[in-house]
Amino acid sequence: MARLADYFVVVGYDLDKRGGSEGQGRIHQRFPEKDWEDNPFPQGLELFCQPNGWQLVPERKPPSFFVAVLTDINSERHYCACFTFWETVENPQLLKGESSEADEDDGPGLLQPAQLYAPRSLVLVSRLDHSEVFRNCLSLIYTVHVDGLHVPMETVIGNLLTCIIPIAGGSQMNDPPLCSLTDILLGCFQLGQDDIEESSRTITLGAGDRQVIQTPINDSLPVSGCSVALLFRQLGILNVLCLFCAALTEHKILFLSSSYQRLTDACRALLAIMFPLKYSFTYIPILPGKLLEVLSTPTPFIIGVNSIFRSETQELLDVIIADLDGGTVTIPECVNISPLPEPLLHHTQTAISMVLDPELEVADHAFPPSIQASSLKIQDKEIRAIFLWLFAQLFQGYRWCLHIIRIHPEPVIRFYKAAFLGQRALSEDDFLMKVLDGMAFAGFVSERGPPYRTTDLFDDLIASQVERIRQETGNSQKVMKHVKELAEQLFKNENPYPAVAMHRVQRTAEKAQPRVPQTSFPPLDEVGVQLFIDHAAAKLITAPPVVKSELKGLVPAGPPLADIVDRNGNVLANSARRLEVVRNCITYIFDNKMLEAKKLMPAVIRALKGRAARVCLTQELNQHVLQNRAVLDDQQFDYIVRMMNCTLQDCSHMDEHGIAAALLPLVTAFCRKLGGGITQFAYSCVQEHVVWTNMPFWEAMFYSDVQKHIRSLYLENEEEGDASTNDSEGGQQQVSALELASEQSRLWPTLSKEQQQERVQKEESTVFSQAIHYANRMSYLLLPLDTSKNRMLRNTGLGDVESVSNSYVTNSIAGSMAESYDTESGFEDAECSDVANSVVRFINRFVDKVCNESGVTNEHLKALHTMIPDIVQMHIETLDAVNRESKRLPPIQKPKLLRPTLLLGEEFVMEGMRVHLIADGREEATGVMGGPPLLPAEGAIFLTTYRIIFKGTPTDPLVGEQVVSRSFPIASLTKEKRLSGSQVSVPLDQLIQEGLQLRSCTFQLMKIAFDEEVASDLAEVFRKHVHKLRFPQHVQGTFAFTVGQSAKLVVEHKTKDKNQSLRTLSKNLVKTAKRTIGRQHVTRKKYSPPTWENRSSLQSEIDEDEISVSEEPDQSSLTLSSTIRSSDRQTMSNAVERACCRDYQRLGLGTLSSSLTRSKNEPFRISTVNRMYTVCRSYPGLLIVPQSIPDSTIQRISRCYRQNRFPVVCWRNSRTKAVLLRSAGLHTKGVVGFFKSPNATTSGPSQADSTSLEQEKYLQAIISSMPSYSEASGRNTLSGFTSSHMSTSGKWGSIRGSGRLSMYNPDVGNRLAEKESPQANGGPAEPYFLRQKRAYLYIIGDKSQLKGGKQDSFQQWEVVPIEVFDIRQVKNSFKKLMKACVPSSTNNDQNMTFHRCLEESEWMNLLHRLLQVSVLVVELLDNGSSVMVSLEDGWDVTTQVVSLVQLLSDPYYRTIDGFRLLVEKEWLSFGHRFSHRGAQTLASQSSGFTPVFLQFLDCVHQIHLQFPMEFEFSQYYLKFLAYHYVSNRFRTFLLDSDYERIELGVLYEEKGERRNPQVCKSVWDYIDRLNKKTPIFYNYMFSPEEEEVLKPYSFISNLKVWDFYTEETLSEGPSFDWELVRGRQEKPLEEAGERMDTTAPKSQRRIVWPCYDSLSKEVPDAITKLLQDVQNLESELGQPTEKWKETWDKIKTAQRVESRLESKHSFSSSLLMSSNLSHQRRSQGVYLQESGVGSSINLALDCEVNTTSTPAAGRPSTSTLYSQFQSTESENRSYEGILYKRGALLKPWKPRWFVLDKTKHQLRYYESRQDKVCKGLIELGEVESVIMGTPAMGAPKNIDDKAFFDLKTTKRVYNFCAQDSTNAQLWMDSIQSCLSDA
To answer: pTM to 2 decimals?
Structure first.
């Protein structure tokens, strides 16, 4: 029984405390005034009466009612029903101050309201939730007040406070009349006898009213009214399910609504659907505005807030906000709600939608039956029934996982979570894990765990309906039938007598408008009310006590979990054959048939991956223990331990399948005898598993054993035989522990005190004895065999109960232990005690926890604490003896470590460490897809200066003879990740501590696990070395530079010195440059040119380098030669020889001529404006620009472009003469100024305007260069254009509009260039400004940059905005591509197949977009329009597009030489940032690896696949480049621009004599050398069409995944380091051409394994094979072997003379010319005879034809006169000899042959004495002085200081060094005499 209302309170507006904007409430009266003893008065009630704050209002509001909920300190909820009405304020002096705030609604407030209204609240406080009854009672009191009924208010309130009703079940008919008491007290009207039954649920307050209270039959079920159905209507199914999951997984939930009653209902509804779980966190359905800071509490909550406070809730970052009025649920980004597990989620959603919208099912029927949705009250119960049904499925079988550990005096019950999750196969499910760990579930277990109690609807459901639910799943009709049955029960519980719903309450609202109270609420007589309360209390004492018998009984458990089969289980894993293998193997071991067992072992280890096989193993071993066969010999012991380890290895830390639990008794049973009467048990060999350090595992095991013993304690004598079996749950024929406990609980009250005491003691001692037993068991598994070595401290679990990870070192103890292996050191005891202490601490924690939970007495607990250290100490002593003896056993034979072959100059940094190479996600090597299991393999990992190499043999004995090797260059390492022991799975006779996963961008992955013999600090050293080598301080630390230096120096000391010298060098460089260029500051990043007025003053300044800055007086009249000072000649000659120039000459794009008679009509010229790299750092020194544009303009234009990369010509179409230009995107200012208003005129020409005009002029010059333009006299209409072709739906629109460029097809270019010309921005074509012709120049620009640009319809160029991908996209795409091609672990998710991952990477999409844009540009060029590609910074996408365009358009680039030239020109010279994008140094580490060049190569590979006869090089050539551009073996792809290469001196270094001919510094030299020996790079199908323009398909369906990403050869590693793969013998490259395995007999058939053998080597193609045979025969016959190319060419010539004649001769001859060109001696520069070929570079570089051609003034220089006659060399050599000369900036001292020529007045120098062509000369006319010098950095060693002298000219100072001081003096004298003679 309980009071209906505990307190009645009158709360009003506090007029005294009014201040500020908000008023306060005040409690005017409360009844009773004294607190009830069992229920104190709740504080802060007045805040909840007006949650929005107490305010006076100018207009009376209607009365309102809502129920707030307050929770007290004991977690009891108090329901505060609050009825509020409005009274006029009687305080006239406050009116004036009040009005200004009160009439916010009335606008400016000019008219002050005559009176204001204050709120008054009547509040009922109760512990029962009967909101309708409260509403009626408070309405009655209000009616009495307003209508002035003749009933004393005190009587009504007194009756209300003394009304007693049953909490539950009270409305049943057969109950005694419980509420009649109130009627007797009232005396208002007496009841007749026949009204007695009705009175049992009727109350009256004595004002002529009458109400029925229907209390629920069972109070454990929540009462919800219609609230659940309303909540679903307000928010929708998915949103409510989301809130449901959030509440169960302990998130914060906030409801918003403008109605308080709705907030209360929503919160009540959420709690109702959570049943049988109870919400135990903060619950405030209505939160007052003053308490909003509660929302920032860290604990979970369910809170309701009025929507006027919405803005205050915006900054809550971790709160889920449900807006009831708007029907939305907002989940913050940082909150991750675990959803219900499928298929439960789907079933629940379907069922709810059938309740809420029953018409949905028949909506499509032709004759839909009329289906009426249930009433709201019924819908409410149906939805609750669905949630009950859901919980029944979630928690089915939970009672089988309860451990009862004490029955008397109170049952103590624990839930075995791991077993529950394991048997339900839901151990991975996030939602269930969180629910089981939550507070609500803990309450559920303690409330519903006891086996003897009253049951409710949920218990019945779990007990008897689980089977029915399972069978009905999927059948919606049956499910709905079941739901309706449950709903009926819920409805009945809430409304036991739905027919009797009688209210007779007088309300003012019934007939007319509610009357307005004329007076304020009167103060009540406290004494009168108190009399009623006292009277009632006295009556209650004398009344007989009401006893309601509770029906307690055994709680049925429902079907056992074992019957709920794991339906998702893998059929393979549980196949009977595998179990048979396991059983046979164990039988063989115990029968001592070791050879048979060894054969089966690999199969057993594979089988043990499956759960059934592991269970089978534990059962089989248990049988042998029972047969007393637990003592084994050494070999048996090894095998059993290995199988146990393998079984435990796949167990998770929580052991959900109970495997570790089943093995626990076995590891303490199996043993072997060692010498000296010592026994070693299996536990000492299976300690390396995370499960042993998991505290919850030990607790579950302990409770399980305690339950067994308690059960056997209470079983009758005849059943005690059964109790010893292992079945912890109890079988069908046995009584389960819970049933036993229930029976005992029933009998408990009938026992005498002594018997009760005896039982309590017996149980307690049972628990105590188990605790001792477990202290022993735990010490067995936690103390390592060798306590002197710190192997045990691997488990952080010993340091921290919660932790389940498996890192191997916890604390500083580990450090001290790892050092000391010496048992004689004297520190052994201290260390042992450290190990012992941590184990003791762990066991103590365990004992404390379990003993406190299971009620062990304090004396026993103390005894345990004193016992534990002794147990541990004793065990350590035993283990020492075992360890000593076990060391005498012969060690396991491990395979010998194999050493890898190294490249020339490659050296070991770390010798081999024994490791296991573990299988990753690629299945070919593991044997899963057929073939032998090559992995895992055991071997060693080596770290060299160049690579990380694994070499070893497979652990599977069937393929043990094969060698497995995997390697990749260190420079290609992209990610390194540590693996813990649990992530590493290797054969478990090996002890593994930790591992590493190394991923490389050459599509290789190494997962290695370090062997036990590798100290953990060594593994750390390995990681550090790898990191140091991967990211050197400077690019000079990469292998390409350090090759051949000592490895140790590289790693440790070298970096420091190197950097110091580098720093000095760069300082000198900057100083020199500053001194040189004056105001032109040279900095690394940015070039700021001097003001143009001061430019001329720079001319006279002296330059200290071989690169000079000079001013050109008149561009048009000057040729190149006149602009180059003699000191610049060397650099210029080098620049001229670069790839760019060779290509410009081939394309006829510009000349460098020494004569003045150069034709002026050549449209382009080679500009030297960037020879100092001052205009643009990342461009080459020589650039092609329009003839008419002077260099000064270029310098100005360059500033408009990003990175100063202004437009330059890089290719010309030989047929249409259209040119391809490249540049960076414009700066945003430039875009606006240039494209938006190109013809805008302003009053004065500002700087920006002039620049944009110059830009326009530049573009116009390019257009003018095109023949089609000049012929058309600027404005013709091309004949092919007619208006019918002007459709606006042209392909341009699709390219511009679609972000992904997906609608483009191969004929766009034709259409675009020939037929269609819509408006530039992709909009509809304007009729007046239709351009009746194609544009002469198309500018491909970035869409985002060109937004809003207007196109002038009369311009001759057109801007094509396209969307390009940025670098981040490429980077992310590549990461996903690597994970798809080389996954780190096998993926069991069916949705994440290789092709799905590939698709998600979007790599193919990026290729598609690149090819698409490239084909578009090719089409435009082919149709005679020039194209300028102007994207991003001009060095990534631009480079890709421009290179692809040239490759597609020009057959020359599809030859081996041509492709090299293309890469050198577009990628290297034009400054693609190889170092930055490849993250080659420490500085660029953070930017990450971005494979822009690889993407280009992939595109070339795609084109190669579509046009296999057009390329001279093979696919292997592309793979070779793809591998070596990241390998850092060659210097070719290092650094970011030519400028940086010159600065480091690597650009022209190959010119001089090579120090080490074996080490190739350039990848091209290497390819040339290799190409002579073997046809590996050659494509035999090469048969090109002349002038063929390729237009590949670019649809994704036409693209193929490059096999470079997926193939691997485990037999030899990557095949791209040719010496390693082919020539393993003495001659590294001699046999490179040999591709057959000649050792094996020819007739023998061979098995070629995928991923192991190299297919090209094992099965060579026919031509390679025949060429090889020819070579072999020649060598056998002793003939000189011919080069393969010659043989091939001969055969081709002989066989196909006709076809060769047909193929155009001119093309092959041009090829011949280019090949001659490239075979010129590199040291000489390009030296062609001055022939009639206008396009060749006629720059003679020997001394006679001097570089100075006629200057502008026309006066011939002396050297020009000299060159008119040729005298013999001997006459002109006055003095000669060797001198060391110090080169220009950053160049070393080099010995040169110097000749002093008095006749020509020159000092010339040559490469050597025999050389006929001079390298350079110094005009003696310019020499100012010859003085003694000082030794400078890098000078030759062991040379006298006096041997140095300096020669100062007007331009610079030359430093020389002779062999000795006398020699130096001789030279100085000779030069001096020459000077004096002059």
So the answer is: 0.53
